[in-house]
Amino acid sequence: MATRKRGIPQGNAISEEAESPKKLRTRHVAALILARGGSKGIPLKNIKPLAGVPLVGWVLRAAIDSGEFDR
């Protein structure tokens, strides 16, 4: 019998763990948005309004609207 690396199924083989509904896990995806406050050109630019919304607000809105993140 050929050996295989742990966790990588060969061909169409499905492990017993994946077949059991009790062991089925849902995948959670979180977003980490980094917003530095220090800037030499425009101090505190992340909280400066751009079209009435802070700059970091545009990034947050785009992440939420993408539907890719649940946290």
From TrEMBL:
Coiled coil: none annotated. It comes from the Eukaryota. Residues 1-23 are annotated as: Disordered. One of its GO terms (molecular function) is N-acylneuraminate cytidylyltransferase activity. Gene3D superfamilies: Spore Coat Polysaccharide Biosynthesis Protein SpsA, Chain A. This is N-acylneuraminate cytidylyltransferase.
